[in-house]
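Help needed: design a sequence for this.
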């Protein structure tokens, strides 16, 4: 496979453009949506749980177009990037992002999308780090970024393979989003009438409670300390805001002390600190695993599993209320554990909860299965990518109309060589 090295600037129609310097405002469908660093996940996907708008007359000059890719230029998010997908909606990009408009006559723009999620790219970003802090990368430096560029036909084949995997992950995430909204609405049907009017007499077996009454644990996660000899992984605050993204270098210094904080099925995770926008405030963990959260996240674990799903979906619907319990300034807030314990809510009867749980279980199982499949697909895509780019897997004779068959062969090859199907 013939390859050459090209710079990002040489493959773009511009030399990199900084976004609009304007404050975010509450989302308004009549205003342009605003894309900020915090709206971009580390894996290049978009987090729309805290969507904002921008109210500035010049915002229309900063709207993303197909073929555009934006990069975070500063702080611990440096290197994070997002390739614009029109299916995500229309966005004006913010000032801490740098946009490059890729030239489709010089490169398959989506090839650059996948290249900027590869280990080669992140190694380049890491070369600008100083100690534990990611270094800043400006537009001029991004323009000089080297990209290993195979022939166009190979680019197209790599994009087709990676798109097939990414699109399935996207479908899974969309299905899960719909299911979560339906379950949240089902839970709301149980309690809404009584919350609107607390003077209403509750049905037999129903009662008002505080969270502490049904929980056996309300605690913060742990403070991760890097230990290369530990096999345990830490989830960060981003697990609540960015769809359960793992922290980098998140290995534990004292693993024996955190066993009780390994996430269990239906644990409720609450974002307990915030700098600016909190994003996703509450999240349910659907499957048990040897993972813990860091100290920016509070774990609420019910004494009886029958209460767990109801509490979780109640929290989804009451994120603004939970945020209001934070203390501190607008820029830096904290949710004390004692504030979580005294959260007050309506608890349905055991009979009503049994009906809700029975109705919810098929959807919850599908959500967990979709999450697990998406993790496997992402692992497969990330394992295939360097082999595809370096020509270790020959795609020159790939019949893209028979892509599923080829993917199956690639899957078997990669699983055998990398042993990632644990």
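Sure. Designed sequence:
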């Amino acid at each position: 496979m013939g390859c050459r090295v090209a710079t990002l600037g040489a493959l773009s129609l511009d030399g990199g453009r900084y976004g609009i310097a304007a404050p975010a405002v509450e989302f308004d469908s009549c205003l342009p949506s605003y894309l900020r660093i915090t709206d971009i996940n580390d894996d290049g996907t978009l987090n729309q749980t805290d969507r904002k708008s921008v109210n500035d007359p010049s915002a229309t000059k900063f709207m993303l177009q197909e073929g555009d890719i934006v990069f975070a230029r500063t702080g611990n998010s440096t290197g994070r990037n997002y390739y614009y997908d029109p299916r995500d909606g229309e966005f004006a990009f913010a000032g801490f992002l740098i946009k490059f408009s890729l030239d489709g006559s010089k490169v398959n723009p989506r090839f650059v999308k996948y290249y900027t999620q590869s280990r080669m790219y992140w190694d380049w970003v890491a070369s600008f780090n100083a100690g534990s802090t990611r270094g800043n990368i400006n537009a001029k430096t991004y323009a000089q970024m080297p990209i290993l560029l195979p022939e166009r036909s190979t680019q197209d084949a790599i994009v087709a393979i990676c798109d097939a995997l990414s699109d399935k992950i996207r479908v899974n995430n969309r299905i899960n989003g719909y299911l979560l909204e339906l379950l949240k609405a089902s839970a709301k049907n149980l309690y809404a009438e009584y919350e609107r009017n607390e003077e209403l007499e509750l049905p037999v077996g129903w009662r008002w409670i505080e969270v502490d009454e049904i929980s056996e644990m309300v605690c913060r996660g742990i403070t991760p300390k890097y230990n290369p000899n530990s096999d345990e992984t830490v989830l960060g605050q981003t697990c609540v805001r960015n769809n359960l993204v793992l922290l980098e270098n998140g290995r534990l210094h004292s693993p024996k002390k955190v066993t009780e904080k390994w996430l269990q099925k239906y644990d409720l995770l609450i974002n307990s600190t915030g700098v600016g926008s909190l994003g996703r405030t509450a999240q349910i963990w659907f499957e048990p695993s040897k993972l813990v959260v860091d100290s920016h996240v509070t774990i609420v674990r019910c004494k009886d599993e029958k209460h767990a799903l109801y509490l979780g979906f109640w929290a989804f619907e009451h994120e603004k209320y939970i945020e209001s319990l934070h203390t501190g300034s607008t820029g830096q807030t904290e949710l004390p554990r004692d504030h979580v314990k005294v959260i007050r809510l309506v608890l349905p009867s055991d009979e009503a909860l049994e009906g809700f749980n029975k109705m919810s279980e098929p959807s919850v199982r599908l959500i967990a299965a979709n999450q697990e499949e998406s993790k496997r697909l992402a692992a497969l895509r990330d394992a295939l990518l360097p082999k595809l780019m370096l020509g270790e897997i020959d795609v020159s004779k790939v019949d893209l109309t028979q892509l599923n068959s080829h993917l199956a062969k690639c899957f078997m090859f990669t699983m055998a060589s990398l042993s990632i199907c644990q």
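The domain at 1-150 is CATH 3.90.220.20 (Adenine-n6-DNA-methyltransferase TaqI; Chain A, domain 2).
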